[in-house]
Amino acid sequence: MVDFQALIASARVTLFASGNQRGVAFDPARDIPSLAGKVILVTGGAGDLGKQVAIEFARHKPARIYIADLPRDDDGASVINAIRDAVSDEHAPISYLGVDLSSFESIKTAVAKFCAAEDRLDIAVLNAGIMRVQSGTTAEGYEIAFGINYLAHALLTKLLMPTLLRTAELPGADVRVVAVSSEGHNLAPKGGIQFDKLKGPCEDIKYYQRYGQSKVAIIGLARELAQRHPQIKVVAVHPGRIMTGMARGLQKESRLFRAAAPISPVFCVSPAIGVRNHLWAATGADVESGKYYEPVGVPDKETAVAKDRSLSSRLWEWTEKELESVKC
């Protein structure tokens, strides 16, 4: 049976939402400044987008890049080697930080390892995310998309905030947090976030609505963090429409996505193009804290519900309550 609601929602975003590349002319090779001395963390850094972000950063010689992604049998050696090969530098300072974002305990352990190794953090790119047809929950019982895409990153940022703020006090510091949202936040259910259903699998709303509300939440997180921590820049970004591992995974679960696969090249760009908004937000000039940007550097394109300050304020209060007992 064809899911006509999913078809309409997908068409609305694919055909009528933002384009892939407009706005600021940003060339990573030319426009990323020297990153000498800087420490960078990228969640989802083993995937298509996250790995490309790390590659572009590595070309500009930071002190160290941390790839935060699921634990691997080889401790991330294959990911590290792939990035080093891409930049032709077998000694590029890259470390792998195993973390399962569906578990608060795993996040706490990863942050403890990072803080034991580093006393600064200049750029955090909160890039990891999922979009699944199948429902599920995190280790703590939260709806899986909201738990991984939003709440895990809210916790990660909370635990790393002392290091971020300490770095912001250093001479010449330019500390940034880039949280990856999506134009898919358009797909959120009525009201933006269904707070009463965030615990549990949330099976009574469509998978794309579960994804959409997690991306509305990311926009709200950036706004609330920016308001509370003016010493650092915090923004949310939409990368553009990119054929990534997440999209390929959806093709396995969804007949609609499989049917759309042949025309995806018309609407999608490569990860090398898709990361430009990440990179501009992390390093570019004229980035305004608290904003949501579509590619590249185009502000204020979020929906009315995503702009709703009362919603982001309620989200902040809900998040603080859910995470109040979680400490390193």
Features:
328 residues, alpha/beta, 8-stranded mixed β-sheet, 8 strands
> Can you give the helix content as a percent range?
40-55%
Order of helices and strands: HHEHEHEHEHEHEHHHHHEEHH
Unreliable residue stretches: 11-17, 245-251
Strand order of the largest sheet: 3-2-1-4-5-6-7-8
Topology:
Blueprint: H1 4-16, H2 28-31, E1 39-43, H3 48-58, E2 64-69, H4 77-86, E3 94-98, H5 104-117, E4 123-126, H6 144-168, E5 176-180, H7 207-228, E6 233-237, H8 245-253, H9 255-260, H10 264-267, H11 271-274, H12 276-283, E7 292-294, E8 298-299, H13 304-307, H14 309-323
Parallel strand pairs: 1-2, 1-4, 2-3, 4-5, 5-6, 6-7
Antiparallel strand pairs: 7-8
Helix pairs in contact: 3-4, 5-6, 6-7, 7-14
Organism: Chaetomidium leptoderma
GO molecular function, one term: oxidoreductase activity
Family: Belongs to the short-chain dehydrogenases/reductases (SDR) family.
